[in-house]
Specification:
The structure is a single chain. The strands form two sheets. The chain has a four-stranded antiparallel sheet. A four-stranded antiparallel sheet has the order 2-7-4-5. Strand 4 (about 55-60) and strand 5 form a beta hairpin. It is about 35% helix and about 25% strand. It has four helices and eight strands, in the order H-H-E-E-E-E-E-E-E-E-H-H. It is α+β, with helices and mostly antiparallel strands. It has one domain: Sandwich (Jelly Rolls).
């Protein structure tokens, strides 16, 4: 399973934009086993993990959900909030006690509209996370469901 970190907010955002974003953050916690969101639900917030782990999963018809990636400290949980129709593309579960910063998506999108430079940097950060998650999903689903050797050249 892929567990390499996605691009962190600390590396992606300049200090001034990071500070502005953190002004709208609130501290939250989730007990082990809590479901943060379901695939297809309304994406109206996102989180940066402070402590703990979150599993991202994908519904697979006729099977149990496939765990796509495990997220840890400083990683972004949720990218669907930035893109219309603002619906979750994956599901997420706290696998340990999780403490995180929670952000209201509407407030952050408004901030991005008011400050196009900040909006561009946040879009780039979330886009990098999205690209990483798509690669992770592809690799994980091939690991789980492709016939042995299906990806090797003959």
């Amino acid at each position: 399973m892929i567990t390499t970190p996605t691009p962190s907010m600390l590396r992606a955002l300049p200090a001034e934009h990071r500070q502005r974003l953190m002004r709208v953050a609130r501290e939250v916690s989730f007990p082990q086993g809590a479901r943060l969101f379901e695939e297809g639900g309304k994406a109206d917030r996102f989180w940066i993990i402070r402590t703990g782990t979150v599993e991202l999963d994908m519904h697979v018809p006729g099977r149990s959900a496939a765990v796509i990636e495990i997220l840890r400290h400083n990683e972004l949980v949720g990218w669907s909030w930035l893109f219309t129709p603002h619906a979750w593309h994956l599901g997420a579960t706290a696998t340990t006690l999780v403490r995180a910063y929670e952000f209201d998506a509407t407030a952050v999108r408004m901030m991005c509209r008011e400050d196009p430079a900040m909006g561009h940097i946040i879009a780039q950060w979330v886009g990098d996370v999205l690209a990483h998650r798509l690669r992770s999903a592809r690799v994980r689903l091939l690991d789980l469901y492709a016939p042995y050797g299906a990806g090797s050249a003959v």
